Amino acid sequence: xxxxxxGEEKPKDEFHKNHQMxxxxxxxxxxxxxxxxxxxxxxxxxxxxxxxxxxAACRCCGTTFKTLYDRNIHHTENGVQGIICxxxxxxxxxxxxxxxxxxxxxxxxxxxxxxxxxxxxxLPARKxxxxxxxxxxxxxxxxxxxxxxxxxxxxxxxxxxxxxxxHVVDEVYGIVCRRCNMLLSDESPDQLDRLLACRDWIIRGxxxxxxxx
Length: 213
Ligand SMILES: [Zn+2]
Ligand SMILES: [Zn+2]
Ligand SMILES: [Zn+2]
Description:
The protein is built from eight helices and five strands; from the N terminus they run ααββααβααββαα. By secondary structure, it is an alpha+beta fold. Helix 3 (86-92) packs across helix 8 (189-204).
């Protein structure tokens, strides 16, 4: 099959099924179809979209894109801000003051010396293995107790409406809000670098991230 839009020869499963077509599939490939859908969603012209999709790396943290699907159009109420990776997209949110505050809090939290509430693997009973931490956390007494007492996020200090147990592999650090849990993610050096990039992205503002530049 040759895509009518990009002109590339691709296997049939790279095209969406469509019973109205003689070939049984649409004549533009999935990638091009998605491209068009995104453009309509963001009211972008073809040139801008082509430019955005030709970017090789996240405009915010610099992570190289592997596939077209790694490219996320980041937009706020001020419009499209650039092509970035999905992790930066989630961290930046709408780039509000609160988004910035949470990113800053996550950076400080990751850089601080924190006490470990408990190590799941050292707890008695049940088969606690690091890979099963998520499943077992809520049953563990020290965690249940900490969770019960927690009223504010250990990271951003905002009042908790939902409580998430933040842990890295089997070390439990604290009870955090949904957003902070997501920002802290695996607490890898990569994630810290990404958060620092997101913080700078918001602080430096519009001129720092010119779409065409
Ligand atoms: Zn195509
Ligand atoms: Zn990124
Ligand atoms: Zn929080």
